[in-house]
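A quick word before the example. In earlier lectures we treated sequence and structure as two separate objects. From today on, think of them as two lines of the same record. Here is Probable dual-specificity RNA methyltransferase RlmN written that way.
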Amino acid sequence: MKKERVNLRDLTLEELEAFFEGLGEPSFRGRQVFRWLVRPEVEDFSRMTDLPKALREKLSQEATIALPRLLERKLSTDGTAKLAVGLLDGEVVECVLIPERDHYTLCLSTQVGCAMGCRFCLTGRMGFRRNLSPGEIVSQVLLARRFMEEAGIQDKPLRNLVFMGMGEPLANYRNLVKALKILTHPQGFHFARKRTTVSTVGLVPQMRALAEEYPVALAISLHAPENELRARLIPATRRYPLEEILAACRSYPLRRGARLTVEYVLLEGINDHPWQARKLVEILRGIPVKVNLIPFNPHPELPFKRPSEARVRRFQEAILSEGVVATVRKSKGLDIGAACGQLRAELALS
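And the structure line, produced from the sequence above:
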């Protein structure tokens, strides 16, 4: 039986060093390769010219650094780009490159599909297929950078990462943390941890584990201020009541001046009443938060309506009047199905 080759993109720097020691090579070879893996154009070992030729040939037998493929690019009128990523087993995920004032943000996927079943999200309708490997998560950054180079996008850097694409990041905890370590390492991609945000519907054990092991910026997808409504909107979170989620939020380590983000999709007539805004403020009291209000992005397959601007404004003002920061997200990429709740990897379904 043929031995399966190790995908070096799945390995942290420390694991790469151990891998090379296992080959009888000095550990610094791991650091050399780690630096090469940051470059979007490097897809085989022959490009790694500071490695001896014999070692490159050996690596070709023992390991792989194959990248997923960029299958499709969709450009929005607002500059947002949705990228369909074809994984090596034929599955497809999507990531979204979002232009900001002085930088770009990349919204990354962590799973093929999702098991959380959020009623207002298209990804949930796919069901769960599988977790992404650390290398598949990291490769989305490389493909986004390659796309930026090919499209001549050089006006501002890719600086922020948000794990808010397909899947529940904390349900893929081990692979997520490895990807975070690879992406934020100063000898590699060197993304700042304060500019790297993980979003979760509130998987409490994993929230506590992340706080202990590798804290980055955290966003909580709340969407309702009481347990009964929340369980209807996000069925998979029934096992974690709001009280437990908010307790984990209170103990989550924050850098000085930082806040947790609370994400709240506004659904007309369901969770957008001013009394619900006041209830939201009440349960968040004592937690340094900013509330990110997201008016629902309609889709024919989803049974909800987007609230009017007046209703959104009333909800926001009810929060602001209590001294809590509340912003309304301007949906980007709506015309290409790249806005919040719209990712579904159409190529995988066709």
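Notice the following. The CA atoms of residues 266 and 295 lie 5 Å apart. We will return to this example when we discuss secondary structure assignment.
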